[in-house]
Structures are given as structure tokens and as C-alpha cells.
Amino acid sequence: MEEKIVKLRGIQRVVAQNMTQSHTIPRVTTIREVRMDRALGARAEWNAQHPDHKASVMAFIIYGMLRGIRRYPVFTARFEDGAMIFSGELGISVAVAVGDDLVTPVLRLREDISFSELVDAFAGLVEKARGNQLKVADYKGGCMTLTNSGALGGDIFTPLINYPQSSILGVGKIAKKVIVDDPEKENIIVCPMMHMCLTYDHRIINGSQAVGFLGQVDDYLQDPFGAKDE
Fold first, then answer.
1. pTM of the model
2. Rounded distance, CA 43 to CA 101, Å?
3. Whether CATH 3.30.110.70 fits 10-221
4. Contact, 163 vs 186, CB < 8 A?
């Protein structure tokens, strides 16, 4: 193979600049393994009832993230000039593979959005991204990012924060594992499991908030249509 130079342009150049800036953030990654049998069951039930309105696993994860953001609003903030800046925006940047590129358009949400509305909005955003119809405005207003290495077989990783945001949630592949279902009865089952890897700016988000956020997402995935905010 011959050596060649490919200059980054457009969104690729912006992403590269943001990733370079990300290294200035003192960051920590907290990892939690969650069981996915109930979420997958809820997805199958939803899709059977809504054949023209199907939901992806990512839609369930995003809805769980919204629950976590409501409980811990610090995940909407960024660090700037020694202060926490709460933008007031409630949007999640979602990493979408488009050919060999990775783009992170913003899924715009509101606190009272229904699951049905989120499913439509997420599907529309992915379609727009893969149809090369994204505009500059589609990348603005995100408070944190969701990225999925599981689609390519990844499991545990430490995702880089999408500067100037303060956090990013990375999810790995869903794989069956042997687990203890009930610690008291010590019964063993085979269950689909997934790792959630949360990287965050430790200047404004502490470990207890990170663990609490992951707990909120986990609680939702254990009972998608019945979990209540605490």
C-alpha cells in the first residue's frame, strides 16, 4: 500500500477537534453490568403490538438516560471558567455510523416526552443521518452523548467525552452469561447482560452521582413500562 494524506473536512474535522479538547477534561469512567432480559422482553412486546412503530434497544436506553438526567440534572451541565453552566437544553447526542464515519446528531427531548414519541424521534434522526441530510443545527444542543460499541461486538470500553459536554454513556454488546438470579436462593440462570460505561467530567460530577445515574438507567431497564422516578 502507498502512503497517502487525507485531510479531514466538515464534520470529521469538528469531531477531531472536539476529541482533542476532550483530553483537557479530568475524567473518570464508571462501569455497571445490567441484565437485559426484561428490557428485551418489553421490546418484543412493544414491537408485536406496534409492527409499524418498532423500537430499538437504544430507544429503551435513551428513555432510561432521560430518567437519570431528571434525577441528576448535573448531567446537563458543562464546566466553563470555573463554573457549572446549565444550558437548559435537554438533548442527547447519539453516535450513528454512516459508512466509515461516525456522526453525533442531537436527539431533542423534553421531560414529559412519551416513549412512543421518543421511538419516532430516534428513528427519524437515524434515517436523517444515514440519508446524509444532517445540518449544522442538528449537532447543537446536546447535554450528553450515547455511543454503542456493542453493535460492532465491543463490550467494555472507556468512551471519550464529546467536548464541551460533561459526560458520555457507552454501551457494549448484549451477551448471555451465567448469573445468580436470586442471591438468597442462589439459583443460577442464563441471562442476556450488557455493560454500561459512563465517562464523566470529575470537576462537576462526582462518583456517587455517576453511580446513581447508572442506577436510574438500570432500574428503568428492569421494568421499562413500570419503573417510577425516585
1. 0.91
2. 28
3. no
4. no
